[in-house]
Write a structure and sequence with these properties.
By secondary structure, the protein is an alpha/beta fold. It has a single domain, classed as 4-Layer Sandwich (Metallo-beta-lactamase, Chain A). It contains 6 helices and 12 strands. The chain has helices at 57-63, 80-83, 99-103, 117-125, 216-227, 244-257, and strands at 11-16, 19-23, 35-38, 44-47, 71-74, 91-94, 158-159, 165-167, 172-177, 186-190, 195-199, 233-236. A hairpin with a 4-residue loop joins strand 10 and strand 11. The longest helix is centred in the C-terminal third of the chain and has 14 residues, at 244-257. The N and C termini lie far apart (48 Å). It binds zinc ion (ZN). This is MBL fold metallo-hydrolase.
Length: 261
Amino acid sequence: MTLPVADPWYRTESLDPRLWLITEPHVHPIFSANMHLVLGRDADLLIDSGMGIAPLRPVVDAIRPDPGKPVICLSTHTHVDHIGAAHEFETRLVHPAEADELAAPSPYSLKSADIPAPLAAMFTESGYDPLWDYLVDAVPSADYNLSAYAIPPAPATGLVEDGDMIDLGDWQAEVLHLPGHSPGQIGLWHEESGTLFGADAIYDGPLIFAGAGMSMADYTATLKRLRDLPVKIVHGGHDPAFGPDRLHQIIDHYLALWGAA
Ligand SMILES: [Zn+2]
């Protein structure tokens, strides 16, 4: 089977003068995660690094006004769609609960048939499109080898926990530990603008809460915590950004679904 070539692989979009969204339009929607790039005075911040199917660093450096400036790669958790290109960055932050996975990522296949049946069933039941033959509908180059896909180790150079601050000199955000979807799931809270980077704890699409390493009890506490934040905008790990009304709708929906309202 030959897939078409998609070049460029990544789509980039400026959301405001200092915030960029990078996506992989040719990855299946359930694995197509958002990467956010925040431009700072002393350093830039990349929140998540996608599937690692095509080199990401050149794309990030092309956006950065000063590619010589340090760039921090923060992995919000270590699912395959968030850590693929972490190894391309010198500074790599993650929560301690997921540091082992970042240092030695589990093998993963781009072939949908290789996805364990219970996981595949959960994806379909949670409302996502049927899986394609592969997790991609294109390749980044004609000589790309789908079966050689693997995530290179990217041992953390620093660990971040709840309450830690990410400081770009003129932009500071607080690390929120938001377990549930994964044990070391973190988000970022930029209080000054009321911006929440919700990662896979909260986004405007089917939330994934039942699988290996997931906990509905933890997820319930996480959603209740997010409900109380004075949020103005949420940039999630998947799907488009949304505001506080939608945030509360999503939270109330899942808490009711789980009998935890
Ligand atoms: Zn995830």
